[in-house]
Structures are given as structure tokens and as C-alpha cells.
Backbone:
């Protein structure tokens, strides 16, 4: 026996606003993330009416202080820096995936990573991941890739590997791999 799907329910402005407040009460979101959620709940989101409805609700949320991309970016980047010990490039990638504009990202990251030593941050990241001095070429490559995924630049990665006395041949191979 086949089950019929329930009819898709579309929201009015007030219902959409209440939905958004509920979504924001569970966790912070960017404007782009909310717009993605709204598109599923608005009849014809690409029509003029749908776009206007979405923008009205977004404006209402911003006016009441429930939605602020710059605060979100600052909070998100400080959590990534302090808790996960990620480097700057990883945080940029994550924020872009969330639909942030690059000027908002740049301002937030400049404030968050001001005075932070990238090499010290990378060492804390390695400590958090329980990675130790490599014994061979394979382990050195693993650490190199792990630091690159963590958002650290090649200069910082090579600086750490050189201090761990990784042989020049391995460093040259890793350098050719990174370009």
C-alpha cells in the first residue's frame, strides 16, 4: 500500500517569522542559511512575492537584533580559533561555505586573529590532534596534510617541520606537492 505524501504547507509572513525565531533559538545562523531554510517554506520562492516575503522577514529579524552576520562571524571565528585551534584559512573556508560575504569575513578574522602567532596556533592544533614529531617521510607528509586541512599556510607548516629536523628531501617533495 502506497502512502500519500502530505501536502506541502507554505507559510505566511508571521508564520515564517515565528519559524525563523525558533530556528535561531536553536543555534545562530547566517542570513544565507536562513534564506535557504525559507525557500522550502515559501510558495514560489523565486517569484517577486516570495523574494519580498523572505526579505521582509530577514529585515524584521535584523531590526530586532536576532540576526547579525558580523556578530556571527566574530563568534564563529573565535570559537574555531580557541576550541578547535584552526588556522585562519580554514575559518575563511568555513564561513564562505555558510554564505558569508568576504568583507564581513575579513573584518571578523582581522579582529579575531590579531596578535595570534600562526606557528603557536599550529603547534596547539598538533597537540590537540595528538600528533608528534614524525619518524619517517610518510608521517611527515601526514602532518603536512593535517596542518594544511587545519588552515595553516605552507610557510608555517615548513617552519614547524624544519624545527622537527625533517630531512630536506622530504621537505622538497612536500613543497612540490603543495603547489
Residues:
Amino acid at each position: 500500500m502506497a502512502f500519500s505524501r502530505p501536502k506541502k504547507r507554505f507559510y505566511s509572513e508571521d508564520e515564517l517569522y515565528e519559524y525563523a525565531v525558533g530556528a535561531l533559538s536553536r543555534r545562530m545562523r547566517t542570513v544565507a542559511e536562513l534564506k535557504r531554510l525559507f525557500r522550502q517554506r515559501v510558495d514560489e520562492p523565486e517569484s517577486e512575492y516570495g523574494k519580498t516575503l523572505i526579505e521582509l522577514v530577514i529585515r524584521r529579524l535584523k531590526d530586532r537584533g536576532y540576526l547579525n552576520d558580523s556578530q556571527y562571524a566574530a563568534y564563529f571565528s573565535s570559537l574555531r580559533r580557541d576550541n578547535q585551534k584552526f588556522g585562519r584559512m580554514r575559518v575563511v573556508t568555513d564561513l564562505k561555505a555558510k554564505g558569508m560575504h568576504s568583507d564581513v569575513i575579513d573584518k571578523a578574522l582581522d579582529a579575531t586573529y590579531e596578535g595570534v602567532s600562526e606557528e603557536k596556533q599550529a603547534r596547539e592544533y598538533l597537540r590537540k590532534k595528538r600528533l608528534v614529531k614524525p619518524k619517517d617521510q610518510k608521517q611527515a607528509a601526514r602532518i603536512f596534510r593535517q596542518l594544511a586541512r587545519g588552515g595553516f599556510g605552507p610557510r608555517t607548516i615548513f617552519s614547524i617541520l624544519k624545527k622537527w629536523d625533517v630531512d630536506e628531501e622530504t621537505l622538497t617533495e612536500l613543497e612540490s606537492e603543495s603547489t
Q: What stands out?
A: The chain has three domains: 13-63, 69-112, 118-178. The two ends are 57 Å apart (CA to CA).
